[in-house]
Amino acid sequence: MSKHTIVVCDHIHEDGLNILQNTEDVNYVYAADIDKTELLNVIKDADVAITRSSTDVDEKFLTAAVNLKAIIRAGVGYDNVDMEGCSKRGIIAMNVPTANTIAAVELTMAHMLSCMRKFPYAHNQLKQDRIWKREDWYGNELFGKKLGVIGFGNIGHRVALRAKSFEMEVVTYDPYIPSTKATDLGINYTNNFQDILDCDIITIHTPKNQETLDMIGEEEIAKMKDGVVLINCARGGLYNEDALYNNLKSGKIAMGGIDVFIKEPAIDHPLLDLPNVTVTAHLGANTKESQKQIAIQAAENAIESARGIAYPNALNLPIDESKIPSFVKPYIELTQKMAFLSAQIDKSAIRSISVCARGEIAEYLDSLNTFATVGALTVSSGDEVNYVNAKFWAEEKGITIDSNVMANNTSGYSNKVTVKITTEKGTTSISGTVFDENVQRIVEINDFVFDIEPKGKMIIMRNNDIPGVIGEVGRLLGDNNINIADFRLSRGKDGALAVILVDEKVCANTLKELNSLEAARSVSYAQI
Ligand SMILES: NC(=O)c1ccc[n+]([C@@H]2O[C@H](COP(=O)([O-])OP(=O)(O)OC[C@H]3O[C@@H](n4cnc5c(N)ncnc54)[C@H](O)[C@@H]3O)[C@@H](O)[C@H]2O)c1
Ligand SMILES: O=C(O)[C@H](O)COP(=O)(O)O
Prior knowledge:
Shape: elongated
CATH topology of the domain at 101-279: Rossmann fold
CATH superfamily of the domain at 101-279: NAD(P)-binding Rossmann-like Domain
CATH architecture of the domain at 101-279: 3-Layer(aba) Sandwich
Bound molecules: nicotinamide-adenine-dinucleotide, 3-phosphoglyceric acid
Number of strands: 22
Radius of gyration: 31 Å
């Protein structure tokens, strides 16, 4: 039995490790305790890798991971995964998006309470210094304070709900949700960022990306109340770290509750020297409950993706399969086959791939286009091309890709897809449709009408429409021990096109002989 190698790059709960260890077709490698430079050596054998925030999936990692097909980020944030790098290589990246939500929510509440009551400092005074000085520790209450929640997703909305149970007034800013998602829960919604800056406490729960990096900097802090409290249990850098440090030092920000840093581990970070910061070492997801769930899901998803069965929570697929209705799937398959066939007819460097569709199917042109690109590129690049990297490969090869809705339809088919591929040798256009839900048919090749199942070995011969062609072709193939399974001929104004289905692969010499027949204009062999 061939085994799939799954490399675990960071610490995950033992329940996940046990699943990997007890799966017969998995060769499981535990690499969480090795140096990240040594990991580059281990990762070269991985079919699938499981990582957390301690492993950067960057250019170095991806260059080393020559066999990698999928990567599971055992957590939510994937800002340390080079998504474009994965896509270019056809690696499917997935995360485990909800298993640590509660853990992160509760740590946020802990930081909030900790900041208000200066909990760690009061704790240290008694425990470490053995001083009983109650007058040093007059804190503040959450009750009645205004909380601003930036990002109202899985974590943000639950933080807001918990804050409400502390009888806080809560307002959220998240331009990517309908306002009713908040207002239905009794949370105020704003699209004016100043409403957030006016709050007593601000907490952020967005992903880290170009838009959210440094979302709160000197300018925003200057607009806040004196004595504001800032919480960050999402990602280092969402609050500009220099601005955060300067304003905590000056007292403009009364307290900061910080779980995450731009550079981790953050053992020498200047924020650690300040007396008004409560810190944790990126522990947002660190509850036993959450880690157990994440590890189990990560292990199961790793196995499924290694087997090529499913890619749960995939982040870089150009197509969301769950949104594709079942009637579209055979068209997608057919489009890939037609492109594969087209690219074999005028086999040479591809210049352009164009998809044109009519009927309801035209709504799915983007998906059809992706699969046409896969089909066309597979001729020269084999299995290395998949629907994750096809677009990048085409770009790299300078291939133009376009798609459009068919303006008029004289064919009578309610749904029809045409794939046109131009190579250095010429242009081939193939059209197809689907009958009875899943009966795929090629109905045109270069304007010649056909009814062919897109399957098997075939000779495509463009010829002059003169007597005796079928006989001559039959004799020649017979002489070469090639059995004809079916012979389809379509006649047009300028000659004819024959599609000859054969049982055996046709070699270059036989094609040459066919090409030298008097009636032959061009002959190619293809296989679907
Ligand atoms: N400290 C930890 O250990 C820990 C644990 C879990 C998650 N996280 C971090 O928390 C982040 C949020 O997690 P989640 O599960 O709530 O994710 P989520 O995707 O459910 O929610 C993110 C929300 O942010 C919103 N958003 C995006 N851009 C925004 C912008 N410019 N302004 C305002 N809102 C914006 C989105 O619309 C979404 O509603 C993750 O991306 C991750 O980085 C940290
Ligand atoms: O994005 C996340 O899920 C959290 O930051 C947790 O990261 P971790 O898996 O490294 O704890």
